Amino acid sequence: MIIYNVTINIDADVHLDWLQWMKNEHIPAVMETGMFTEYRFARVMSDEPSEGFTYSVQYLAESIGEYEIYRATYAPGLQAETEKRYKGKFVAFRTLLKIID
After folding, report:
1. Residue 93: which CATH number?
2. Percent share of the chain, pLDDT over 70
3. Which of these, 100, 97, 101, 99, lies nearest to 4 by C-alpha position?
4. What SS3 class is residue 57?
5. Higher pLDDT, 52 or 35
6. Total structural domains in the chain?
7. What do you get for the CA distance between the two ends of the chain, in Å?
8. pLDDT tens-digit readout, 10-42
9. What distance in Å separates the CA atoms of residue 101 and residue 25, rounded to the nearest whole number?
10. What DSSP state is assigned to residue 14?
11. Cα(5)–Cα(56) distance, rounded to whole angstroms?
12. What is the distance between the alpha carbons of residues 76 and 99, in angstroms, rounded to a whole number?
């Protein structure tokens, strides 16, 4: 099992709009690709002050193959849409993890 983790820090002035967009549009669009079996959406808890709000979205894939198809076929368009809507208002980084049984 593979976890595709996206950590996002979003500016406070667009936070509520972004949160609704993630729940109602972006995450469903990622899941509609069929490359992931489930997801988790969480707010990062921190004692350190920061600008904006930080979240983690974890998408679970059965294998690296599904992730690679997602990355090559679907990710560029979905990431471009995020950039178009929230340009200069967020920072994101992506991590690929393998679950160890």
Report:
1. 3.30.70.100
2. 96
3. 97
4. strand
5. 35
6. 1
7. 9
8. 999 999 999 999 999 999 999 999 999 999 999
9. 33
10. G
11. 7
12. 25
The pTM assigned to this predicted structure is 0.91
Range of the domain at 6: 2-98
Rounded to whole angstroms, the Cα distance separating 11 from 13 reads 6
Per the document, the length of the chain is 101
b/e map of 19-43 (b: 16 or more CB within 10 Å)?
Answer: eebbeeebbeebeeeebbeebeeee
Q: Where are the beta strands (DSSP E) in the chain?
A: 2-10, 38-43, 53-61, 90-98
Residue located via tokens 């990062």: 44
Amino acid residing at 67: Y
Question: Do 75 and 92 meet the contact criterion of CB atoms below 8 Å apart?
Answer: no
- Contact, 12 vs 89, CB < 8 A? no
